[in-house]
Amino acid sequence: MSILSKVRAFVSDSPADFVFEVSGAGIAWTRPAHHASIEWAPLMPGAIVVSPLENNVREPGVYEAAVRNLVADPSGKAKQRRAALILPDYCARVAVVDFDTFPSDPQEQLQLARFRVKRVVPFDIESAIVVCYPQQRTGTVKKVDVVVAVINMEVASHLEAPFRAAGFQCGFVTLSALSALALPGEDGDEHASPVVVAKLCGDVLALSLLEGRVLRMFRCVQLHGGSEQEATDVLATTFAYSEDELGARPKVLRQCGVARENGDLLQHWSDEFGLPVSSLRSRFGTPGANNAGLHGYLETMEAL
Prior knowledge:
Nucleotidyltransferase, domain 5; 30% helix; five-stranded mixed beta sheet; alpha/beta
């Protein structure tokens, strides 16, 4: 089962009444049952500073007020409402690690996942939330690719706290770039493989390498000054990884977060890597840097 199938199964079992996506710029949100009209609540600059190492909420009062005012209950009472919460990519660490065999017991899975990633996360693994999603590799190779997501407990608790205080039960929490993998590309080639998905949000670039529906690699880097050349260099290493590990060059590069008016950069990537570059699309509007994960969640719901 791929990570996309895991998300689809969870959404099917526990559909959310509200979906929120938090970024350094603001909060995108929607009520899926209300025709999925996507709303936007900006935050003052610096209210949230995304980091995997420390509390991201620099202005708690501003953040709490913004969440409280999104869908305030006229009665003033905090009612329990189901919510999906989508967090910024750079607030966590995601790795794809392979195993020859992987246990079926969830506790054993987490123990192995913790052991494999504890040396690559920049914080204490023992004070972190760890989740893992095993995926059976496609083809004849009998390996299991396990997506391991790790977030500092302090980071997660402060980002979730205002939603809990407002009466939301955040039963599903994920990262924006992972949720956005459910979105198709404007190229329309659903069977293209391998595929690289690049999501740019401010100065953070998240890259996913998909082989079929299996996530084979994930990288999230902070670019210095939003350097286009640095972004190109990071993409180049991803393409090299695909050739070395998958034995094939990516067939298409799908992107989100690069403004359409910056067509020169997209054309540069197309020329540099010799493949088509297309944007992610959604039936609910144009996915952007601060709401692509929300669009991906809605796409998953529509596909059920």
